Amino acid sequence: xxxxxxxxxxxxxxxxxxxxxxxxxxxxxxxxxxxxxxxxxxxxxxxxxxxxxxxxxxxxxxxxxxxxxxxxxxxxxxxxxxxxxxxxxxxxxxxxxxxxxxxxxxxxxxxxxxxxxxxxxxxxxxxxxxxxxxxxxxxxxxxxxxxxxxxxxxxxxxxxxxxxxxxxxxxxxxxxxxxxxxxxxxxxxxxxxxxxxxxxxxxxxxxxxxxxxxxxxxxxxxxxxxxxxxxxxxxxxxxxxxxxxxxxxxxxxxxxxxxxxxxxxxxxxxxxxxxxxxxxxxxxxxxxxxxxxxxxxxxxxxxxxxxxxxxxxxxxxxxxxxxxxxxxxxxxxxxxxxxxxxxxxxxxxxxxxxxxxxxxxxxx
Length: 364
Description:
By secondary structure, this protein is α+β, with helices and mostly antiparallel strands.
């Protein structure tokens, strides 16, 4: 166990924004929520999965909806209490720890805010190792763990509980309710025992996010003989896809998601080339000069060419210079069941999944 304070929050937010693969919400908004809660209620205890007891009950706390809308709505102080009270009433047992459902700007931060305000520890684990747009897209679904009951609340105080026949139905019904509530809600789902978290959770994700953030922040102090870009790629085990200037951004909010495409005009060694990246909250497919070079479930990340700070989809602006990087996904996503949940064909991308490390060989 160790404590999460303001400096740790800064680093976690930065690193998780990279793992968010363009989605997960504005890290600045999430960071403000977490820092505000820690200042008011004290630092948060971060515990390892193996520190959980057999009778512990763990719940992810997350925001559902379009990240751009959450920027306008925010999250109040009472939502977490009401969510946890209903879960405790449902099970007749108190929740003993919270966790992030994904790595992303907002959803890496909300559990910190919730833990601080509820006086609970946060577990160093998530259900993705990155961010995905839909509720059933978690490693817990691979283990047939139910998302029901799901409880959600909006900033006006509307509170709902649903039980569904599949995790996909949780997504369908919650998304409709989310749209009715103005585009975003706060939720808990996948109420789990310690054994379930240990078997299917992505361990150490909070610590890894913090280490990534610390590395990005100090990227100019890279080892002698390496450029910041080389060091960034080596540290993240990432693959260089394309460097370019944003030439066009098409974006729309539809059904509780941010959909769109960003077009990059090549700069530097990629001058004369063009890349396109399709996204649904998160970046899903990267095409360079007409050839697919990366798809979900691998991570497609855009970072500033100078600072290597992640650039989420809702911050894409004409003229910005970015480096597109591909990161290998968590190993469970490459299984047959994982690809059914988050493979390219699920998102309407007409290609089979090929690992990013194989696809980039065609760029050489």
